Amino acid sequence: MKILSLHQWKQQQAKKTSSSRNKQVDQDVLRIIEQVQIQGDEALKQYTLQFDQVNLNSFEVTSDEWEKAIKKVNSTLLDALEIAAQNIQRYQSEMIEFDWSITPETGVKLGQQVTPLDRVGIYIPGGKASYPSTVLMDAIPAKVAGVKEIIITSPPNKNGEIDPVVLAAAKIAGVTKVYKVGGAQAIAALTYGTETIPSVDKIVGPGNIYVTRAKKWVYGDVAIDMIAGPSEICIFADSNAPVSYVAADLLSQAEHDEEATSICITNDRSYAKLLQEEVNRQIPLLERKEIIDASISQNGKIIICENNKEAIDTINQLAPEHLQLMTTDPEQISTKIKHAGAIFIGNYSSEPLGDYLAGPSHTLPTNGTAKFSSPLGVYDFIKKTSLIQYSKNKLEEAADTIITLAEAEGLTAHANAIRIRKENNHAQSIFKQKNQ
Amino acid sequence: MKILSLHQWKQQQAKKTSSSRNKQVDQDVLRIIEQVQIQGDEALKQYTLQFDQVNLNSFEVTSDEWEKAIKKVNSTLLDALEIAAQNIQRYQSEMIEFDWSITPETGVKLGQQVTPLDRVGIYIPGGKASYPSTVLMDAIPAKVAGVKEIIITSPPNKNGEIDPVVLAAAKIAGVTKVYKVGGAQAIAALTYGTETIPSVDKIVGPGNIYVTRAKKWVYGDVAIDMIAGPSEICIFADSNAPVSYVAADLLSQAEHDEEATSICITNDRSYAKLLQEEVNRQIPLLERKEIIDASISQNGKIIICENNKEAIDTINQLAPEHLQLMTTDPEQISTKIKHAGAIFIGNYSSEPLGDYLAGPSHTLPTNGTAKFSSPLGVYDFIKKTSLIQYSKNKLEEAADTIITLAEAEGLTAHANAIRIRKENNHAQSIFKQKNQ
C-alpha cells in the first residue's frame, strides 16, 4: 500500500476519460439483445446453454423449488436475513413520498401525484458467488415504494438451480418471481419481454461487464439504477483511529475483486507508516489474500493531507462510494462532505455494517458518480406526475402572458389554444376573424 | 384524424421495440465525442464551422454581449418571462428536500444528507428555433436546488450569436455562463470538459437526434435528464368539452413537428365525428399548417372507449407526456391515472398553460417513459448520501448477525472487520488466534 503526499496523488489523477466504448463486449451484447428480441425464450435457452452450461426447459423457479430451497437454509442465517430485512424496511419507510398540492391563488391548483412503478426487475449475479444481501437491499426499497411485481433474474448453476439463500432472501423481501437467466440475455428479456419473462419498467442490481453494458444499451427503453463500476472505500483516519480497524476495513473492500480501490486519508505521516505495516501484517492472514493483495498493490493508497480542509477537499474530489470517518470529530466532518455514496461515522461504523445490516441500501454510486447519483432508495421505484388546474378566470388572466411567450417562440397554434378560450367560449369565429 | 375503436387501436399497438441502435448517427456522434476529447476547443471550432457555418474564436458569451442582447428584448416579453420565472420558482420551491435522520435505538443513528450538484449543463436548441421557455423550465429547478454553476450551451446562428430572448431568459433564471456550441460536440464538451468549457455533473435539455444520441453515449460518465422522444398529447374528452378547445389543443401539440402525436379519447362516437370536422376546419387557418397536417395525418387519432374504465386503462397504457382531462369529473379521474408526465385538469387547463406559465417544468417524460420517469424537478439536481452511525455497544450487539451474512457470501474479510471490533479492541492477536 503506497503512501503519497496530496501533491503526489494529484499528479496521478488522470483527466476524466470516456467509459462509453468497449467495442468487443458491445458487439457481443448487441447481438444477444437482438436475438432475444427476435427469438424470445428460444434465444434465452441457447445462451443459457452456452454461458451457464445448462439446458433449461423452463426458466421460472416453481413455488415447489422455492419452498424446498428455503428449507435447506439454516435457521441462524434465516434469522440474520430477517433482521437485516426489518432494518432495511424501517430505514426505507422514512423515504416514502406523498402526493402534494398547493393553491397559490384561488382558482389555481398545482401539485404532484406520486405513483410506484408497476413492475421492476432485479439482476442478481450467480455462478460461484451468491449475494442474498443484494436481494434484500434492492428488493425491499421497491416493495416499500409499492411496486406490485418484483422479479429477479439470476444465472443458474450447472444443475440448473439458483442458490437457496438467494431464494430465501427473495421470499423474505417479497419478490414475486425468480427466473433462471443471467447475462446480457437477462437484461434484454427484462427490457423487451419474452414468452415467459414479462418486460419491466426498471432494471436494478449489479452484474459483470456484459450485464453492465447491456444495461447501458437498453437504457431509455427501460429505466436502470446506474452504470456501476468497481467498489471503493475511503477512510479518513487520524491517529486516534485503531490502526487494526482501519486496516481490516480497507482489506474488506479489497476482497471484492482486484479492481476494488481502498484509500486512507490521514494527516499523520507516522500513522500512515503504522497502517501500512498493519495492512501488510493482516493480508496473509486473510482467506481471500490473493485478491486482496492484488487489489491493494494496484489501487491501495494512503494519502497524507496537511489538515482537515485538505482532507475534506480530497474526499469531495474523490466522491467515494463508501466513506468512513474515523477521526475525533466525525459528525462535524460529515456535514462538510458534499459527495459520497454513504458516510460511516465513527470507529464502530465499519463498512460491512452498512453492507449487510444497518438499513441504507448497499447499492451505491461508484467511481466518482456520487457527484450526481444517490444510493438506491424508495425514490428509485416511484415517479411523479405534475398536476395543473386553472379556473376559467385564472386562465383568462394568464392568457396574454402565455400568448406573448408562445408567439416569441413562433408556436402560434399554442397561442391559439389559449386565445380561443380567452376571446370566445365557443370560438366559432376566432380563426376567421384573425384571417379576415 | 382517424377515428378508431379501442379494439382497432389495440391491434395497431406494436410490440415494444428497441431504440438502442441508430448506426449511422451513432458512428458520427462517436467520432465527434472522440475528437472533442482529444482536441478540445479546436474540435469545437471545427465542428461549429462545419455544422453552424460560423468561425468562432471564443465560445463564451461575454457579459457585454449578454447585456446588449437583453436590451433588444421588448418589455412585454421580458415581463412575461419574469412572471413565468416566478411561477416556476414558486412551484419548484415546494420540492426542496432536507437532510433527515432517525435514532431507532439509542446508539444507532441513520439518515440522509441532501446536497446539490456542483455544476450542471443545459442544452438549448438554436438555429431557426428559439426556446427561452426551456431555459426557464430547466434552469430554475437547478437554481432552486442550490446548484452553484448552471451553464448553457446552444448553437450560434450564422452571425455567431445566440438569440437575445434566450440570453434574457438565462439572465432571469440565474444561469452562470452561456457557450455558443451545439450538437453532439456540445454534449461531449459538457461531459469531458475542454480548455474553455468545464465538465458538468449533469446534462439536461432537449435536442435533435445527434444531441439525444450523444447524451445516451455519455450517460454514466455524466448524469442526464432523459432520452427524449417526440412530444405527445392525450385528451380525454366527453361531450361537454368544447369541441373547438379540444381541436385547438390537439393542433397545438401537432405544430411541434411531424413526429408529434395527438390523441383524443372519448366515449361518444358522435362527438368524435364533430371533433374530426373541427380539426379539419381549424388546420388550414393555422400558420404552421403544413407541419400540423403532416403530424395529424400520420399520428392523429380519436379512440372510442365504451366507458371511463376503458378510457383510464388506455391512458395508463399510453403513459402520455401530456394528459388533458376535459370531462365532467376531471379531478376524480385524475386520481385514477397511474402513468402520465403532466395532467391538465378541466377545460381551462390547456397544455400551453403548462408549457409556458403554470410552474411545473415542461420537460416531461415522452414516448411511454412516464411509466418510469418524472417531470424535471428539483430532485434532478440534488443527490443523497446515506449516514450510518453505530455505537460500540450497538455494533457488538449486531456483530454476529453481520458475520453470519458476510460469511454466507464468502466475504470473510468483511466478517473480520466486524470480528476485530467485537473480540478485541486492539486486535493485535485476532488473526493469529483464528489461524492457529
From TrEMBL, chains A, B:
Matches recorded under Pfam families: Histidinol_dh (PF00815)
Positions annotated to bind substrate: 231, 253, 256, 322, 355, 409, 414
Transmembrane found in the keyword field: no
Domain of life: Bacteria
Catalytic-site annotation from UniProt: 321-322
Sequence positions that bind NAD(+): 123, 185, 208
Binding, Zn(2+): 253, 256, 355, 414
Manner of cofactor binding, per the entry note: Binds 1 zinc ion per subunit.
EC number: 1.1.1.23
CDD domains, sorted: Histidinol_dh
Family: Belongs to the histidinol dehydrogenase family.
HAMAP family, per the entry: HisD (MF_01024)
Biological role: Catalyzes the sequential NAD-dependent oxidations of L-histidinol to L-histidinaldehyde and then to L-histidine.
Protein name: Histidinol dehydrogenase
Organism: Oceanobacillus kimchii
